[in-house]
């Protein structure tokens, strides 16, 4: 802090060194940002291709539109523009924006926290600010690079949509640019929260909770009336959807996103000017002079590190899935015989129209399990972050075995993933009960929880095993999760897809929620797989040098 003040007294600026930091961030994260670009553009390509081929028939298109007009469709999709002529472009905008904004928001939040709060927490930012670097330079550099990568993703994705689906160029750009700007809003929110809390994990969890609240607000607002209500406009997700791409394009909602980003950047700057370096505005609670004996262990340290993101994730996902559950009781009546008339819908939700609600509940459970698997992967990567920041080396300088340290981190992460899965599953049940008390009972939801739990732990175990043996390959867990979600959600649409292509997905081995009995052999097999991977993680960490992550 003294170095910054002295630089300002000598005529320096709070933004001194910004462009040098921009170049450094681009060089440091070129692979990470490249993977995000390819992944999001790949989603656009896949979704465009699937809609343009599987739902090219007008009857199939209107059948899909009927699904999206249901309460669940509105929650998972959008406000419902262009339902009378549900073409590929309209479907892309109505169904894809929410999930694209989710993916880009996660990227934006992690990027901003990584290059601001996490750098302060690790001590690297202090070294940077010992040079000629202004107080606000790291934050501004992180937002500049975030804006650039989102712009690149928007351009590449729009061109992909045009090339694969022959969609209008202007509308394609409107959809991708609107989604990117909405995501940058959440990145700016993360920057504000990085000034509030002193811990990177807490900032990440709080930012994700803000997205969950925005999702609920948007869904509730869109449920009030077709096209969205005044409540919808309180959510940044709606600002991209309200551009009405491919239906009645309008550009002015972009100004709301730009204004929000500018205001949040100003707020973050003001807050940063009123806090001490490496501290948050919320003061840390004063603890005891001597730690309790129960806290003098690696597992206690792991719990202290992970409790904030776990708490915020449970809050955000719990609200989102509870809201989803309240919309389900009338699905059967509203959909009618759509499943019989549309084979593509039947392939996803089942071919029994009388059990459509159960099929849709099964899809919700897959969404929930995928979100919990993502949390597990993030916590697995957090262990790598501890080593990269040098904190693991300090911990292991004490009389603590490295296997004990890693096992403690993984135990807390595994219990946290299990708790998050329980919140996700039972929140849907409570939402349904709150409306009419019908549907599957608590026992059936418990069977779903038990079935998905070992599959979720496999993702944590795989990330840990890769960290133990090949730290730089730990990101493979994300690729497996993306593949598993696509296969689990859309695998039934591909008649020529061999069954063996699904075996690699842990979710493939989980019994269909609410329509099949819990498979205990699969439960044992997945549990054994997770156990073996956890063991490999411990062995791998013992065999390699610390500090090579």
Automatic annotation (TrEMBL):
Keywords recorded for this protein, A-Z: Membrane, Transmembrane, Transmembrane helix
Top-rank lineage group of the source organism: Bacteria
Transmembrane annotation, as ranges: 33-51, 96-116, 137-161, 173-193, 251-272, 358-383, 404-429, 449-469, 476-494, 518-541
Coiled coil feature spans: none
Name of the protein: ABC-2 type transport system permease protein
